[in-house]
Amino acid sequence: METRDALGVLFLIFLGMAEVRARQPCSPKFLRQNAMVCVCNATYCDTVDPVSLPDVGSFVKYTTSRDGQCLERSEGKTDANSSSGIVYTYDPSVQHQSIKGFGGALTDVAAINILNLSYEAQNQLLRSYFSEEGIEYNMLRWPIGCSDFSTRPYSYDDRCVDDFELKCFELAPEDTNLRIPLFHRIRAHAKRPLSLVGSPWSSPAWLRVNNKVEGKSRLKGKPGDIYHKAWAHYLIRFLEEYAKNNITFWALSTQNEPVSGFIAPWEKFPCNYFSPRHQRNFIIRDLGPALHASCHTNVHLLILDDMRFLLPIFAKQVLGNSTARAFVSGIGLHWYFDRYTPVGLTLDITHRLYPDYFLLYTEACNGYQDKDVNLALGSWERGTTYSSSILTNLNHFVTGWIDWNLALIMGGGSNFVGNHMDSPVIVNPLKDEFYKQPMFYHLGHFSKFIPEGSVRVGFKSNCSFQIFCKLETSAFLTPDGTAVAVVLNDWFLDIPFTISDDRVGYIKDRARAHSIQTYLWRRS
Question: Which residues are catalytic?
Fold first, then answer.
């Protein structure tokens, strides 16, 4: 064989190897009817095709289905002349909210679970969430001190009593040995910039009425006094200590679950109770001025960080005050009990009253109710509850959606409170493997294809009778001009539909039963 021919063969082999690396399929594990996970370990993990678009006149579709497809890529051609089924009109001239992004929470327990894998398996997990071959999360929620998903109750100032000058303040081993090093590895895998949201659960015991870090309690005294000023200074000090570790925060929550955390059934649940008025006055007299006087004035301050049913009352109490309003950027929300809370009476009214303040979902998980199985490994239904929630909330002005724990273990834990739950990724350290659940892939239909800076656009259908309108949808325009549409079919039948774009024609397709698709196409 001539040298030139040999080089040609080697080149083709190289291309074939590159193609294999570009798309590693799911290694499925079937658990029961309609339940499947993708198994990953130190040497193998499924990946997602690189996002590349064909020329105008074609489209790309990524599909996840109950039958076993996991973000599988396919291409199709647009039709210039006809449509069929339900018709959705893509209209980028109608623009709504800008999208911030999607992500999960790096709790103490999540970090421990990830680090209980071998180093190679850890990297597979981190790449799955944050790299280009994964679902490209761009947001991380970060508990400040302990949360209910810690192995012990603690704060950053437990060695002293009445330490109002915070002379004993120090980050915990959970920060310095676990989460901070893990974050730097995450950042190395991520191409997209990462935005961190810090959320406090509990303050030091000496600041609380019950004199314990854990349990349902409130701060001693009232806004403007030494207790509240020390707590505000404590939160600023947290930002300063993390900045020393080359980690900065995009946003700071005033308090995790200030109302519902107080009535939670777990006696050990760490929570500082704030009424809306209390939170408003704390912002006016303590936290707002402290943040403004610090080197972290660019950090966005979030209020509420609690259930949607507290809107618009909570927002009116805080944002209705012009002084408090000047310090605040947005409203944090949790998905629990959304099924009982009309979006029109909560999100829509709040957006109409305060259109300049973004709405951001900061926590969600399955398996949280007493009647639920904490961990339903491989559950397709838990994936659709995620995507249905995201679509509903995006269509009502929410700018992003952050999941709860990045990774839990078999059984859904563990933590010192005992409120075990589910997670998109489940770690099995005994086998040095982890399992990507349907929730993971449902989240990927948003996080990977709707980057920060995308805008939700008009996407109306001609479906007149709600009983027949079984598809859940939303559409976006990305910063580089790519059109994106997400289509969820949680029905038991396939549904034909068409996307109409006046620039490119018609995308005619059939949404398979129990599936979610993301469509992308060029408009010019």
Answer: 257, 363
